[in-house]
């Protein structure tokens, strides 16, 4: 927006200046040239001041940009360092995650073995119960058989067996069979008891193995918990680092935005400076043309030679030179620039005299030089008298050397009563000391 407004303003000023020159030159050439010359000079000086201000702003922005860039570099350096720390921390977290996975696999295997053992123990317990039942049944059967024998008169039982036998051999055979049945029953009971003992022994071994596995599982679980605690510490460290990295990234984005904004402002100011410089260049060319026109319309078109330098001019006032011709810091704007004349300190109301005879081409107020007079002396030479309190001549008036043309003052851009005295040759300011 600022650039567009500046460009529009410059275009309007150029159009106005061109229009004034083209229209008024036809009717009042001398008047227009003098007015246009001063307007252009003032505009050039004004633009120089603006360019100086813009350069100062640009330099300040460049410093700010450099400072912000340094801060950004520092943030990026910290970000790189924290990024490396975060990567290492994450690697530790991942390493412990892998260790925990390995331990968890061990726990799973142990739990699987414990499950199998538990199933075996259950099967053995079921077998023990079955054998216990079988043993009980056989004991009951044998007991029932023996009880029946003892309930019956044993002598009578044996006598009945004897009487029912065909012979002694048959009796012995029957008795032997009975004894054999009893022994078989007793053998079965012992066999069941033996199997029971084996099963109980097996159960005991399985329980011991299960207890061992449970202890192993507990140790592995403790190992897993220790690993988990260490991993949790690294997780906390990682989370802290992630927070720091995120904060640094936020700062990085903010600084990038600031640097980019300053770069944009820097470019904007440079564009304004370029526009003003280009505009000033055009104004200088126009000013050169105006002075060329003034010189071409003077009573003589010659150029002052070195032999004539320092002759024919007098000082406009008698006083102290407070500011010499050349580079200086402006007393009002405090900007560095070039002083195009001499400042001669005098009292208010001191008569200002024409340094040489000629035609008054301008006698009016100017925002920079205040009440000012420009006299054309011919031969491409003009003199300027600025900051007067009042003027004593008019445009187009012919004046003689030493004639009072104004009274000294402090109008325009001035800090005290003095006379700003300029001499221009072919449009270029020269040191008045060489002519008076």
UniProtKB/TrEMBL annotation:
Name of the protein in its database record: Septal ring factor EnvC, activator of murein hydrolases AmiA and AmiB
GO molecular function: metalloendopeptidase activity
Region called Disordered, residue ranges: 51-72
Gene3D superfamilies per UniProt: 6.10.250.3150, Glucose Permease (Domain IIA)
Keyword NAD set for record: no
Species for this entry: Clostridium fallax
Record lineage: Bacteria, Bacillati, Bacillota, Clostridia, Eubacteriales
Coiled coil residues, start to end: 189-286
Recorded superkingdom: Bacteria
Peptidoglycan hydrolase PcsB coiled-coil domain: residues covered: 128-201
Keywords: Coiled coil, Hydrolase, Signal
Sequence ranges assigned to domain M23ase beta-sheet core in this UniProt record: 338-432
Signal peptide interval: 1-17
């Amino acid at each position: 927006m600022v650039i567009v407004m500046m460009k529009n303003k410059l275009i309007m000023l150029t159009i106005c200046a061109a229009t004034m020159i083209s229209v008024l030159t036809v009717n009042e050439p001398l008047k227009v040239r003098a007015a246009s010359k001063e307007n252009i000079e003032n505009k050039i000086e004004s633009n120089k001041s603006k360019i100086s201000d813009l350069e100062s702003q640009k330099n300040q922005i460049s410093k700010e940009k450099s400072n912000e860039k340094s801060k950004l570099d520092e943030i990026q350096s910290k970000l790189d360092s924290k990024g490396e720390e975060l990567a290492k921390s994450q690697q530790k977290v991942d390493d412990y995650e892998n260790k925990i996975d390995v331990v968890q696999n061990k726990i799973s295997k142990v739990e699987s073995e414990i499950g199998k053992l538990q199933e075996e123990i259950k099967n053995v317990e079921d077998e023990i119960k079955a054998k216990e039942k079988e043993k009980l049944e056989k004991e009951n059967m044998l007991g029932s058989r023996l009880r029946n024998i003892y309930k019956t008169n044993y002598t009578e039982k044996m006598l009945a067996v004897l009487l029912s036998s065909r012979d002694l051999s048959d009796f012995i055979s029957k008795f032997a069979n009975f004894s054999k049945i009893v022994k078989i029953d007793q053998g079965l009971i012992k066999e069941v008891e033996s199997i029971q003992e084996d099963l109980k022994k097996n159960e005991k071994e399985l329980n011991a193995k299960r207890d061992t596995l449970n202890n192993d599982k507990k140790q592995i679980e403790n190992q897993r918990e220790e690993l988990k605690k260490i991993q949790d510490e690294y997780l906390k460290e990682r989370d802290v680092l992630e927070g720091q990295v995120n904060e640094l990234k936020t700062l990085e984005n903010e600084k990038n935005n600031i640097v980019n904004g300053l770069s944009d402002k820097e470019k904007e100011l440079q564009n304004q400076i370029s526009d003003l410089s280009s505009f000033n260049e055009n104004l200088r060319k126009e000013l050169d043309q105006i002075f060329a026109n003034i010189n071409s319309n003077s009573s003589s078109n010659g150029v002052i030679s070195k032999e004539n330098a320092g002759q024919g001019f007098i000082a406009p006032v008698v006083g102290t030179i407070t500011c010499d011709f050349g580079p200086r810091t402006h007393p009002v704007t405090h900007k560095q620039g070039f002083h195009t004349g001499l400042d001669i300190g005098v009292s208010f109301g001191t008569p200002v005299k024409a340094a040489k005879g000629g035609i008054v081409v301008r006698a009016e107020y100017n925002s920079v030089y205040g009440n000012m007079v420009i006299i054309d002396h011919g031969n491409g030479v003009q003199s300027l008298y600025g900051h007067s309190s009042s003027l004593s001549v008019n445009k187009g008036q012919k004046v003689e050397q030493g004639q009072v043309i104004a009274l000294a003052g402090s109008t325009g851009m001035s800090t005290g009563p003095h006379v700003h005295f300029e001499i221009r040759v072919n449009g270029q300011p020269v040191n008045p000391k060489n002519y008076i």
